[in-house]
Structure formats: C-alpha cells, structure tokens
Design a protein that fits this description.
CATH topology of the largest domain: Rossmann fold
CATH superfamily of the largest domain: Response regulator
Order of helices and strands: EHEHEHEEHEEEEEHEEEEEH
CATH architecture of the largest domain: 3-Layer(aba) Sandwich
Helix content: 25-40%
Number of strands: 15
Low-confidence stretches: none
CATH class of the largest domain: Alpha Beta
Number of helices: 6
Strand order of the largest sheet: 2-1-3-4-5
Length: 237
C-alpha cells in the first residue's frame, strides 16, 4: 500500500485535498492511503522520520519557519525515492520546485480532474519504473522492503508484508527471478526477505518475523538458505 502524507497550513484546503485524494483512491481502486496530514512542518518531518512514506504532497508557501521547498530538501537528503507533489497558488515558485526532483506541480485551486491526471501518471510511473516496488497487479504496488515473505498457494502468490496481505495469480518462478538478492528461497512454497527476519528456530525449521508472522524452511533448501544467512553467499535461488 502506498502511503501519502499531505502538508498545507490552510486547514480548509488540507481537508479538501484529503477528500479528493481518498475519493480518487476509491474510484480507481488504488491501493493507497492518507497516512498523515498536517500544516506543521515539524510534525511532517517527525512522521516521515518514523513512518514509511511514499508520496509527500505539500504547499510551497508554508506559514512556518521553513518553506515547503526547504522541507522537501530536508526529506530528500534521507530519501531519494519519495515522490514529491507540490501545490501552491504562487506560480513563480513552479520552476524552483523541480530542484528537489519533483514529480508534479499543481496550481491552486486544484481541481479533481487535474489531481486525477497526476495520480494516473504516478501509478503509471510506478508500473513502468518500479524502483523498490513490486507490481502485484495494475493497481497494487508493494515496497520490497515491507515484504516479510511470499507464499505460493496453489495458483496464487500471497505477499505477507509488515501491515497487509496481498494476493494475485502469477508464476512463482517468474517472480523469483525478478526479486533482489535479499529474497531467498527457503521452501518449495516460500521466499523470504532475509532483511526482515527477527528469529530462527532450526529445531522446528521455523522463520519468525514481526507481529507473530512465520514461515518454514524445507529440507531441500535448508543448507543453501543457512549459507546465505551465515555468510551472505547468495546463489541462484
């Protein structure tokens, strides 16, 4: 699920933006949410520091100790992949916004139709250039870092993440070849993200993750899997 954060010091504008975003998420069945909204730059920075954020939508001309551009510069230093969408009534700032790799610029008053175009481009961009995202289907994108493990369940693939469970009909072997090296086959029905493992029980061949999630190690894959865990010796899993 893509997590959006909205920042505008005009609370009426902020609430209207939230309403438009959520309406479009529902209309197009986008797997996205408004994780946080605020007109306070410090609150925005604190939230982003402690919570995964995919898209930051912010006003350039904040009535704050820093501008929206300065806020974006602070965020960009630690996050190279986040999408920035600027909104403002001051057209003269439009060119400055692109200094921080801006995805789009929306002039106030924002119409639902204009916002809809931006969201369509954003999801198309994710589809065509996935970066750290896995495209589950045309509307669902999952950050690879959030995936705990992937299970083959008949003809379906089930993605267990830190906060949600997703499923789709797809080929297990085809997906395996597209994943980064930290995704390791541990069982005929499981691929795990070793970066998110919290504990191993080799007596029961159980892999544990956060929130009581777990999967299992198969005897055929155990030696290679443990080799990766111990020595980082990645093979063609």
């Amino acid at each position: 699920m893509l997590n959006f954060v909205l920042c505008d010091d005009n609370l009426l504008v902020l609430d209207r933006l939230v309403s438009m975003f959520e309406s479009l998420f529902l209309k197009h069945n986008y797997d996205a949410q408004i994780g946080f909204k605020s007109g306070n730059s410090s609150e925005i920075l604190s939230y982003i520091k402690n919570n995964h954020t995919d898209v930051l939508v912010l006003d350039i001309n904040l009535k704050s100790d820093i501008t929206g551009l300065e806020l974006a510069e602070k965020v960009r230093k630690n996050n190279k992949d986040m999408y920035f969408i600027f909104v403002t009534g001051h057209l003269e700032y439009s060119m400055l916004a692109y200094k921080v790799k801006t995805f789009d610029y929306l002039a106030k008053p924002i119409t639902k139709e204009r916002l809809e175009e931006t969201l369509e481009r954003l999801f198309n961009d994710l589809h065509n250039s996935p970066k750290n995202y896995i495209n589950i289907d045309s509307k669902q994108y999952v950050d690879q870092n959030d995936i705990l493990y992937i299970k083959r369940d008949g003809m379906k693939l089930v993605f267990y993440t830190k906060s949600n469970v997703y499923s789709t009909y797809s080929s297990f072997n085809k997906l395996k070849d597209c994943l980064p090296v930290n995704f390791v086959r541990c069982h005929k029905s499981y691929i795990v993200n070793i970066n998110n493992i919290s504990n191993l029980d080799l007596n029961t061949n159980t892999i544990f993750f956060m929130n009581d999630n777990k999967c299992f190690i198969g005897p055929k894959y155990k030696n290679d899997f443990l080799e990766v865990i111990k020595n980082g010796n990645y093979k063609n899993n």
